[in-house]
Amino acid sequence: MSQILESEPNADSCTAILMKQLSHLSAKGGDIDLGAWLQYYAFDVIGEVTFAKKFGFLEEGRDLDGMIAAIAAGEEMVDEEEQGVDQLSKFRTRKSKSQKIGTRELVSNLSSNVFAGSDTTAIALRSTVYYLCRNPDKYQKMMQELDSADKR
Fold first, then answer.
1. What is the 3-state secondary structure (H, E, C) of the chain?
2. pLDDT (tens digit, 0 to 9) for every residue of the chain, 152 residues total?
């Protein structure tokens, strides 16, 4: 649970961008592909958690050309000297403590984290939004619980 709590500021910064973008789009009117936006959100959060850097999907509001291929290829996403609570920094620390980790293992683990993490996160978010929209009574109960927890 502590890793989730450590990552909360990363998710919060992505949530702020998502809310800003959705507010801007709703003010313009028209349709919003919430599924696509939740996918962008998931990728940017996973990017923050894994590499300490957003991929930029939320800021750009689109799937950036070549970004997924760059992630799969394992291109460097942060400076060598940068330290943090992201997964890449943790792998580097592990390597520096004589627990050898090869480049192939590093790329494999980080790529799996990005792809699996972003897909499962986006699916969970889409399902949650869908079922809350379909069950207004559950939405109201959730909001009451969140409001109550926020007051503590």
1. CHHHHHHHHHHHHHHHHHHHHHHHHHHHCCCCCHHHHHHHHHHHHHHHHHHCCCCCHHHHCCCCCCHHHHHHHCCCCCCCCCCCCCHHHHHHHHHHCCCCCCHHHHHHHHHHHHHHHHHHHHHHHHHHHHHHHHCHHHHHHHHHHHHHHHHC
2. 576 778 788 889 999 999 999 999 999 998 999 988 998 898 899 888 888 889 899 999 988 866 654 555 554 444 444 455 566 666 666 555 556 666 666 666 666 666 667 777 888 899 999 999 999 999 999 999 999 998 88
CA angle 43, 62, 86 (to 5 degrees): 20
